[in-house]
Amino acid sequence: MYYIYVLRSRKNNKRYTGCTNKKPEERLHDHNTGSNAWTRQNGSFDIIYTEPLSDKKTALKREKYLKTGAGRKFLDRVTPL
Questions:
Q1: How do the pLDDT tens digits run along the chain, 81 residues long?
Q2: Which residues have a Cβ under 8 Å from the Cβ of 5 and sit 6 or more positions away?
Q3: Structural domains for the chain
Q4: Axis-axis angle for helices 69-78, 56-66 (nearest 10)
Q5: I want to staple 51 with a disulfide (CB 3.0 to 4.6 A). Which of 4, 12, 32, 78 is the partner?
Q6: What is the maximum span of the chain, computed from C-alpha positions, in angstroms?
Q7: Angle at Cα 64 formed by Cα 79 and Cα 38, nearest 5°?
Q8: CB of 17 within 8 A of CB of 59?
Q9: Stated pTM of the model
Q10: Is the four-CA dihedral 38, 19, 33, 44 of positive or negative sign?
C-alpha cells in the first residue's frame, strides 16, 4: 500500500505533497523531526489530505498530478483553510 499525503505548515501555511509506503502519520513524524531540508525550514506540519493507492506507479502519478495547477485547485477545494 502506498499513500499520497499533503501537509500544511503551521509556520507559513505552505503545502508539502509527498508519496510514501509508510503510514502517513509515521511520515508526518519524520517531517516534523526534520527529515529533509525543505520541511526542516518550514516548520511543524499537520496532515490535511491522504489518499491510499495500491501500487507505486499509480501513487507517483497521483503525486505528480497534485503538484500541477489542476491538482492544487483540487486540494484547495477539498482542504480549505
A1: 999 999 999 999 999 999 999 999 999 999 999 888 888 899 899 999 999 999 999 999 999 999 999 999 999 999 887
A2: 17, 18, 19, 20, 24, 27, 28, 47, 49, 50, 51
A3: 2-78 (3.40.1440)
A4: 90
A5: 4
A6: 33
A7: 75
A8: no
A9: 0.93
A10: positive
Per-residue H/E/C for the chain = CEEEEEEEECCCCCEEEEEECCCHHHHHHHHHCCCCHHHHHCCCEEEEEEEEECCHHHHHHHHHHHCCHHHHHHHHHHCCC
- Contact residues for 3 (Cβ-Cβ < 8 A; gap 6+): 19, 20, 21, 22, 23, 24, 27, 50, 51, 52, 53, 59
